[in-house]
Amino acid sequence: MKIENIVNVSDYLDKHGLANPALEVLNPTEESYRALLFQPSGPFLGDAARIGPLDLDFADQQATRLLEMAVKGGHHLVVTPEYYLPIKTLLKCIEGETFPARDALWVLGCESMTPKQLVEFKTQALQTGTCEVFFEEDEAAEKQGTYFDPVAYCFIAKEKQSGNERRVVLFQFKTISSKDEHYFENRLLRTGRKIYQFFGPEKRLSLATIICSDAFGISEDKNILLKLTERATLLHIQLNQKPHNPDYQQYRFETFRRNRRTSNCDIVCLNWAENMIFMEHADGKKHEWGNETGSAWYLPHDRCSTDDAEIESNERKGLYYSKHRRERHVLHFHYAPAVFELTAPKVEHTGLQLLANSTGPTMDARYTWDATSLAWVEQTECADTGLTEIFSGDEKVEAAFAHLKTEESRLRIERAVALACGLNNETENWHAATELASLRIEDDELPQRVTVRLERDEQIRTLRHDRVQSVAALHHILATFDPLPLAIRDLEGGGARIQWSRRSPHTNVVKDGQQPALVSYLGFNPRGDQIKAKSDAAYELLRRENVPERRHRVAVCYFTVDGPVFAPIKQLVNFTDDGRSPTSIAQG
User: Fold this and answer.
1) Mean pLDDT computed over 300-328
2) Which residues contact 202 (CB under 8 A, 6 or more apart)?
3) Once rounded to an integer, what is the mean pLDDT over residues 246-261?
4) φ, ψ (nearest 5 deg) of residue 314
């Protein structure tokens, strides 16, 4: 079914005698808001009766602790993904003490609900005397499908006449069924027709949610997409095996290529964790998805820090940086089950320019479930991002990365690897986070980093493997080749290691007592034009750095059927050896 309209929540509540909620996330002040995003584990069940967590008691336990943490911590925004929150958890919230504060909004993707369950839920909520429940009326009794895919907005609104506070649960239903191999959801889903949009004061900021394949509908209607992404926060909650499928990404592509002034928005995608298990029945066939998560926070060009210290602080806690080719910043969430706690600036604020916060979301903490205490526990150690798997079982790789592994900075490792594999140009700021090739993503949004395995793409997996093996090959050649070229001959005899430092940003090989050098390895029998291009780029980088003692410390090698070969670099043809170390003479 097509999205028929976007409903202004303020207007909708007004018809029911309620005032617009005063939500901090939409208050255009310089103060940041605090958020909790939950990326749950499976398995999940999908059959003719329902879609949701297989173990509802376990999900209820985790979700209850999450929402209790939100109340205690005063978080302004809480989000759970599609088909997750058990109905009984939501019912406990409206009947008990665990409910959003008056400036908070909970956006809770819930397990499927039939029309009967919705009516029963509303009846129980009304019995509390303090809660209102709203949802689209299912006008066609003969409508196809068994259940809805709901997101529940939970917030506080005041009665216009009395000023008394009321708890509100507003359900929104998915409007378009997802793609799956057997059209399972297409047969069973009852669809909605509306997307609800919250506005702050003067309608300056807005927030809305789309549920998984709702992305198809908003991609087709540019007017709807514009309304949802201009000075806005757009949440995209999912239970999605292939979040990087182009059809699910198309709305972002359309948004990112639009005029910057009309696409100032935060887009937050939240999926379930990696490697989900789908159960057709509680004791039936099991499907291992082997999926990536695709959970990420997308930001405009001027609202995210690219400073190393801030990027690395986020990365230590599970939030990883990429630069989109459409001049957007992308922060990818770690792929394992977790609760992510963040502080985020408003999309826009009306205060002084000097108070404008352009750092973007900051990861305050990452919590994982402790089965002993039955609670969410903050993790202080850096989450594994696939490096353990990359380094295991290969002695040469282990040796090459022995020093790099001790680095707390993944950015330094990416830079050392980039130099080791040879740069394609001599741009002096090649190592900036926004320019580093492995941190750049195309419209397919697939990260190509060596240090963070976020995707399941075979080409990128092969590329990552090749880069790691290139570093290992370079390290081995430096340790065994005899004699090394004059420019780096003092690296012979062992002790040379691959490293990157801001003090000498264009070099990647160091040895105690010697000047650092730039040495690249280009693989097996590279083309002649590739050798020339990367040799020229390497030499030009050190020439521009203009440090006399290391200006000519550059070498490029590759492998042939006859063994390793160092390429002649024309700029170093007039080079002599004074018996102690390589020394430059006049260059031709």
Assistant:
1) 95
2) none
3) 94
4) -65, -40
- Neighbouring-strand partners of residue 166: 157
Please check whether residue 270 is in contact with residue 236, taking contact to mean a CB–CB distance below 8 angstroms. yes
Provide the β-strand partners of residue 174: none
User: Which three-class secondary structure state does DSSP give residue 171?
Assistant: strand
C-alpha 414/C-alpha 431 separation (Å) is 9
The pLDDT confidence band at residue 104, using thresholds 50, 70 and 90, is: very high
Give the model's pLDDT for residue 283.
Answer: 77
Q: Could you tell me which residues are beta bridge partners of residue 172?
A: 151
- Structure confidence by residue, pLDDT tens digits, 478-524: 999 999 999 999 999 899 999 999 999 999 999 999 999 999 999 99
CA distances to 549, 569, 578, 584 from 581, rounded to whole Å, are: 10, 18, 6, 10
Helices (H) and strands (E) in the chain, counts: 14, 29
Q: Is the peptide bond before 361 cis (omega within 30 degrees of 0)?
A: no
Q: What dihedral angle (degrees, nearest 10) is formed by the CA atoms of 409, 322, 472, 426? A: -100
**Alpha helices of 422-555 — where are they, by DSSP H?**
458-480, 528-545
Give the distance from CA 262 to its chain's centroid: 23
d(CA 402, CA 344): 36
Q: Rounded to an integer, what distance in angstroms lies between the CA atom of residue 197 and that of residue 6? A: 7
CB 198 within 8 A of CB 231: no
Q: Angle at CA 115, nearest 5°, toward 197 and 195? A: 15
DSSP lists the bridge partners of residue 173 as 150
pTM of the complete model: 0.94
Given a contact cutoff of 8 angstroms between Cβ atoms, the answer to whether 140 and 151 are in contact is no
CA torsion angle for 418, 424, 427, 428 (degrees, to 10)?
30
Produce one character per residue of 465-493: b if its CB has 16 or more CB atoms within 10 Å, e if not.
eebbbbbbbbbebbbebeebbbbbebbbe
**Confidence (pLDDT) at 579:** 36
- Please give the backbone phi and psi of residue 68, each rounded to the nearest 5 degrees, phi first: -65, -40
Structure token pair of residue 286: 């099991």
Query: Which of 413, 421, 475, 476 is closest to 450 using CA atoms?
Result: 413
**What's the one-letter identity of residue 534?**
K
- Cα separation of 285 and 534, whole Å? 53
C-alpha 487/C-alpha 523 separation (Å) is 21
The whole-angstrom separation of Cα 437 and Cα 142 is 55
CA 26, CA 33: separation in Å to the nearest integer? 9
Residue 236 scores a pLDDT above 70: yes
- What would the pLDDT profile of 4-41 be if each residue is shown by its tens digit? 789 999 999 999 999 999 999 999 999 999 999 999 99
Alpha carbons within 13 angstroms on the beta-carbon side of residue 453 total: 21
Q: What is the DSSP-derived secondary structure letter of residue 21? A: P
Residue type at 234 in one-letter notation: L
